[in-house]
Design brief:
239 residues; Porin; twelve-stranded antiparallel β-barrel; 2 helices; CHP02001; signal; TIGR02001 family outer membrane protein
């Protein structure tokens, strides 16, 4: 069975824009929110909505001491779930280093849930992320992937480069490995994407091509767990 997810704190590359995923955590005490629409909710290269649209939203609290917490939700459509909704809870700490605080980091715990499901696939995942000069590296780990008592690692590197005012080129590569990847696919694999992002009238917009290097026998082109190459379009609004 394929189970999901990245956390909203790093914006879960699969549901929100790649540009949003590169935004570092807030350092001021405040409550913020975001709503988004995407043509396919992809997590680490794999659709969580059977290739269909997703509506997603989040509420975040961040304190001036670096503490943050929040909740993120999305519709889902997958054989792994007995629920039509995913709700993720997360808590963490953000900090900055260097004379000009140019080197930033965060440590996050995320709890993935599917309200109303008959069989629980809830699980906890930890990650540590680093941010510097447009680069973002994160390492994710769980010892109980999909509540199946197996471990899963995910390493990702993202880069955003501003090509003009309000326009960026965004790149991502991630690697899923460990017993959890074997449980899902029988192999470790890469997911990667390249795209552009901008903002128009306060709405963030992104367009990207996403692909994986899963073997041909594992490529799914329709329905649950769809993982072939695709164009992703996302619009999000923060408040």
């Amino acid at each position: 069975m394929y189970k999901k997810l990245n956390n909203k704190r790093i914006a879960q590359l699969t549901g929100l824009t790649l540009a949003a995923a590169l935004i570092t955590p807030l350092a001021q005490a405040e409550v913020t929110g975001e709503v988004s629409v995407t043509n396919d909710y992809r997590f680490r290269g794999v659709s969580q909505t059977a290739g269909d649209f997703a509506v997603q939203g989040s509420i975040d609290y961040s304190a001036d001491n670096g503490f943050f917490a929040g909740v993120w939700g999305s519709n889902v459509d997958d054989e792994s779930y007995d629920s039509d909704v995913e709700v993720d809870l997360y808590v963490g700490y953000w900090g900055a280093l260097g004379e000009d605080e140019e080197f930033e980091y965060d440590i996050t715990l995320t709890y993935y849930t599917y309200p109303g499901q008959d069989e629980s696939t809830k699980y906890l995942e930890a990650n540590i992320g680093f941010y510097y000069a447009g680069f973002h590296f994160a390492q994710w780990y769980t010892n109980d992937y999909a509540n199946a008592d197996v471990s899963l690692n995910y390493s990702e590197l993202n880069y955003s480069y501003e090509i003009s005012d309000n326009w960026s080129i965004d790149a991502h590569v991630g690697y899923s490995y460990g017993d959890g990847a074997d449980l899902d696919w029988g192999e470790d694999y890469l997911d990667y994407s390249i795209g552009v992002s901008t903002e128009l009238a306060g709405v963030g917009l992104s367009l990207a091509w996403l692909e994986t290097n899963l073997s041909d026998d594992n490529i799914i082109k329709d329905g649950p767990w769809q993982n072939d190459g695709t164009v992703l379009f996302t619009a999000n609004y923060g408040f």
